[in-house]
Amino acid sequence: MRIIGLWISLLIATAGPLCAQVTVEITQEQQQFLPGEALEVAVRITNRSGRPLHLGADDDWLTFTIDSREGLVVPKMTDPPVAGDFVLESSKVAIKRLDLAPFFALTQPGRYEILATVRIPEWKRDVPSAPKSFNLIEGSKLWEQEVGVPNPAGDANASPEVRKFILQQANYLHGQIRLYVRIMDSSGKTLKVFPVGPMVSFSRPEPQVDKFSNLHLLYQYGPHNYSYTVCDLKGDIIARQTYQYVDSRPRLRLNDAGEITVVGGIRHLAANDVPAPKDEESSPTPPPVSGSTATTNLSEAVKSPKP
What is the pTM of this model? Predict the structure, then answer.
């Protein structure tokens, strides 16, 4: 029997009827990830016990384990920070959001399962979730380039540092293709991996690095739609724009001032532009912060889509 399956059986046996009164569920917005990509989860804790629960006071009130398909437990480098006490009233749901990637040694492609366990101190019992499966996949490399890290202002004698931008393509289930940027240091350590967005199969991404070591990326994500993204060496998005193929194809050009710009096509204002469009009335609600805990009425949580 698999290790995680045996553990779940033991936890359920000790929890008894608590599993019906308090339930724990892991949800994810995606089921496939690249090594080093943020592994974001939302843990939904539902209280139907008829009494309030006091949670979050201890560092180990919420714990996680990850194992592979072969039943091997993934080494944990450190425990995720989960402390932050709150009261979960009866008939309400609490949602704890976390990025688990920095805390587990997930390096090998394969199928994995996450298990979350909530400790209820008043009852001296643990309530486990059902395992949540995800796949760690390899992305194909499309392009890479080493770049120098600009010296800090006023520090002309600082030793030069080198980073590497890598452009990767990941093929997801149902035929979806997603474009990723990986940033590595000179030792080969991955500093950040993040998805830029979906891409059509016939797209030929156009990457260029400017004089400030920022990556400019233009790629096609629809029959006539192109996305233009600029990120820095930290992986922060500093610009995002959308263009349409009208009369000519959008493309990158280096001007006389040494700046990279988009020429051709027509720009289309979009809600996910960076910086945001001037019209703030239609700006989307910011996503929840990782590590936060939110509570809502059980009836509202049932009506709302899962995260």
Answer: 0.79
